[in-house]
Amino acid sequence: MMRFKLAMCALAALGVVVSASGMNRWDALSMLESGNDDSAVGRCGEISRYQIRAELWPGGNPQNAHAALAVARNIMQSRTQEFQRTHGRTPSDFEFYVLWNAPAQVDHPVFCVVERAQRFVNLVHRDQRQIQASATSRKMARPS
C-alpha cells in the first residue's frame, strides 16, 4: 500500500494526474507556453511546445512532441522532487507552473509569474468550471 501511495505522489508531482474533467498539466503547459506549436521559438531562444531554454535541451528534435514532453518531464522531475523534499508535499498546480517558469521564485513569485501561473491553473481546471457553471445555470433555469 505504501508503494502505491508513493507511486501516486510521484505521478501527481510529474503532472500525470488529470484533475476532474480538466486538462492535464502537460497539455495546459504546452497550450500556455506555445499554443501547442512544436516549432515555436521564444524571445530568449526557448524551443519546443514547452518553450524549454536551449541550454536545458539535451539534444534531439525539439519539434517532436514526444521528445519535448520527455525533456520537460525530466526537467520537472528534479524540480518537483526538490519541492517535495523542502515543502513535505507535492506542488499545487500553481506551484508546478512557477517551478517550470521561475523555479527560484517558487515561494515568492513576481507579479508577471503569478499572472501566468494563474492562467495555467485556469487551463488545468477549465473544463471542471464549465461543467459547474452549466449545472448552476440549469438549476437557475428550472421553475420553482
Key words describing this protein structure:
mainly alpha; globular; Lysozyme; 144 residues
- CATH fold type: Lysozyme
Over the alpha carbons, how many angstroms does the gyration radius reach? 17 Å
Q: Specify the CATH architecture.
A: Orthogonal Bundle
CATH class bucket: Mainly Alpha
Taking the alpha carbons of the first and last residues, their distance comes to 49 Å
Topology:
Blueprint: H1 2-13, H2 25-34, H3 65-87, H4 93-101, H5 111-141
Description:
The chain has 144 residues and is mainly α. It has one domain (19-141): Orthogonal Bundle (Lysozyme). The chain has 5 helices and no strands. The chain is globular. The termini are far apart.
Summarize the structure.
The protein has 144 residues and is mainly α. The chain is built from five helices and no strands. The radius of gyration is 17 Å and the shape is globular.
